[in-house]
Hints:
This protein is α+β, with helices and mostly antiparallel strands. The chain is built from 8 helices and 9 strands. It has a 7-stranded mixed β-barrel with strand order 1-2-6-9-8-7-5. The longest helix has 29 residues, at 248-276. The chain starts with 6 loop residues before the first strand and ends in a 17-residue tail after the last helix. The relative contact order is 0.13.
Amino acid sequence: MAPRANWKGFLRLSLVTCPVALYPATSDTEKVSFNQINRKTGHRIKYLKVDAETGDEVTSEDIVKGYKVDTDTYIEVTKDELDDIALDSTHTIEIDEFVPKTDIDNRYLIRPYYLVPDGKVGHDAYAVIRETIRSMDKVAIGRVVLTNREHIIALEPLESGLMGTLLRYPYEVRSETEYFDDIQDVKLTKDMLDLARHIVEKKSGAFEPELFEDHYETALIDLINKKRSGAPIAAKAAPKSGGNVINLMDALKKSIASEKEAVPAAKVAKETVKAKKPKKRVEGQREMLLPITGKGGKDVAAKTAPKEASKKADKPVRAPARAKKAG
């Protein structure tokens, strides 16, 4: 089941228009998540919407939006009033300008989306807009309404489609001066910089995100699997302290010495990971959890797991990632 679009409408460049759909390019839904439960009963905690003064539960139809102007004073705003001020960008992404991608400060980037043609019509117009942006080596800036708020979106070609990145408004970005003013202006010797540069060169490589591993997520899965199977949980040893850095030059020299020893091991580990992980879409870590026993004693995860994987009882069963709703 394909994810649902977060938004559907039209992409417009002057008089050129085509129907499009916006899908989130990233997802956190495959990460292990927890529910809050009652320690005494094991039941899940349920939250109710209650009146802050009376403590009485309030139904959904009696809940409205209010803007706080004083301690106990709110200006009520109805859904009809919000609909009346709806912007054109609610249904149309209007391209306002084109700017060099290098001009966009990284602090303004929020999250990426995929913008694709919606339906069988409009592919020609979509291609014209995409290739125009590509040929000019620029980013198209437009506006789109998501969750009742207007956002700035930067569009750029990505393979055969368009990637849109939501941007923050200036008032959402804090100035760096209030944080950097107290940083001391120090003088560094050429020898220090040369040693540091040598360390960087030793650690330099290509950007290969498929080799990234979420170590905390892996530890969570290992913990859950151990608790489920009844295996003992060993206490983690306290991390060794690196000691106080007394002399910066000595620390740099020791770093280089330790790097020489660590590089061969790191290289072997990286090659091992490359051999194990094909360069394909990385599936969710949740698949590594042991199967959940359902009614009738059957393993729920095993129902969808590959046959050869289900035979290996000594390893976590990997089931195909479930399609998640966009949100």
